[in-house]
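Bug report (template v2)

What were you trying to do?
Predict the complex of my protein with adenosine-5'-triphosphate.

What happened?
Run completed; filing so the output is reviewed.

Input:
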Amino acid sequence: MFHRESGYYKTTYKADMALFRLPIGKVAVGAIAVIFFIICPMIFDEYYLSIINIAAIAVIGALGLNILLGYTGQISIGHAAFMSVGAYTAANMAVSFGWPFWLTVPAGGCMAALIGTIVGMPSLRVKGLYLAIATLAAQFIIEWVLNHTPAISGGIQASIEMPRPVFFGRTLETQAELYFFILPVCVLAIVATLNLVRSRIGRAFIAIRDQDIAAEIIGINVYRYKLLAFAISSFYAGVCGVMYTYYFGIANYEAFQLPISIDYLAMCIIGGLGSVLGSIFGAVFVTLLPIAIRIFMENVGVFFVDGVYLAQVIAQMRLILFGGLIILFLVVEPDGLNKLWQNIRNYFRIWPFSY
Amino acid sequence: MSAQSEESARTKLKIDQVSKNFGGVKAVTQVSLDVPEGTIFSIIGPNGAGKTTLLNMVSGFYHPDEGSILLDSQDVTRRKPNERARLGIARTFQNIALFQGLSVLENLMLGRHVHMTSGVLASFLYWGPAQREEVVHRRRVEEIIDFLKLADLRQQPAGELAYGLRKRVELGRALAVDPTLLLLDEPMAGMNQEEKEEMVRYVLDVNEEFGTTIVLIEHDMGVVMDISDYVAVLDQGEKIAEGVPDAVRADPTVIEAYLGADHE
Ligand SMILES: Nc1ncnc2c1ncn2[C@@H]1O[C@H](COP(=O)(O)OP(=O)(O)OP(=O)(O)O)[C@@H](O)[C@H]1O
Ligand SMILES: [Mg+2]
């Protein structure tokens, strides 16, 4: 009943390169699919489904940032701004032209990819801190432009109301309905990322991260691939932004400001840089943390904090905990939650002979 | 070492009056070399002689201040490093430069990058063309893995290997490019006798079996004199001697340069 590697020999290269190299992987994924697509919608009410929805949307964005940050080694503090580009693109297309979601989602992604590629251009010249500052500037510039260009952002408080997505004539209103819209997009993003990182392009990204000089010498056009990483990463961000917009029913730049960019950096760092599973862990963790804090404070905190200040304290605690966790993971476990998970898995792989 | 006798061997690599300064340091001064196709051509010289700098200009990492570099009679002086890889130049580094986070297998697969064509969409989809391409190139990489006896280490992260093995994996990555010109910067430095002998064997085999032209930088005189078809000697950025090993060994300026270096 435990998964052992012995006994399963890969006889073809194809089998050796498969996503799940052990049968247990397929079983586990099948079980997870059943849980999420059948059991969850059956047992959870609107509130819990709304939490899964928001976490699934975050997963898309976290995967995108991890492709850039974790796999290619290029930092961006403007991830949320790319989301807003996707959000407003989709909202405008949906409102002005009545585009359905299967057009607005890729359109939002593509527009974000375009802007992301332009923002990524400094990465051809600068690295590290300088690139961080350049992308930070992009975050503010994009925010400012959206806020001051009514032609894009609608005018009234820079927000555009987003029509509900329509699926084969049926308007998706409830969280349960949105669930079946959001989750498949999330799964698609996960599978696409898994494929990308094990292919020629993903390997080139990692090569640039590990040794950009050797990468260039081995024949990788480092400039082109850095821009490609920015484009792909921003595409995910754009899609993520469109999904948020459908989820909230409104496109508003305030949902995509600097703290959100920081949240996504936190997801990658806490979850695990350069890991798909880590992106998922990180996105879920960072999404659930404020909810857990709120529930904790509402039940336990009321004994220490006056009810009037509770909301403020919760907001502060979130920031403090995030900051603390990022530092903790950077220092103690740079490979993030994913590494902790691997340790547990490896422990059981050799269990009970774990000495 | 048959190429010596062939009078009209084609020039694989021509370095023509190349110079490179770093600030005030004249790292390489007007050096010219003709490397005939299919030979093992060694560059020797004391520390700081400019050997690595010269190699860096051939692989495109540095651009020469003056002079030109020709590969198969084609001027590549202005070509970017990644373009030169496509033209058949591959190299290893004096300070190993592997992709640490990737396995041995993936490092070698990166050597195949220039021969693969899958784009972004194919990579996202994976199943289909991208997978077929992976299998084809995996096959070539496995040949190299067998050749270099790396089979047991296939899935090991490159960063965790012992020094000698890292050097061998780096050779493997360069070979995966299927280069026609292979540049090796001190591939045997820091190795024990046994590892050295193994590496010498690989270098000779690559040269003989694939006909690859090899430019070798090496400090071990025994090795250089044994396996090279030609030797060039650099000292303080200038070429002071060139020829077949026996002639270079007997050259008084070379002896002087090396004794001079030893006296420092
Ligand atoms: N990037 C650089 N910036 C400044 N000076 C450099 C640079 N690269 C090389 N040099 C200088 O150029 C000279 C030649 O260096 P090079 O590395 O080519 O020597 P080498 O012959 O490879 O020596 P070694 O046997 O120690 O590897 C040295 O004086 C070195 O300090
Ligand atoms: Mg050197």
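What did the reviewer find?
Residues 148 and 172 of chain B are 7 Å apart (CA to CA). The domain at 1-88+180-264 of chain B is CATH 3.40.50.300 (Rossmann fold).
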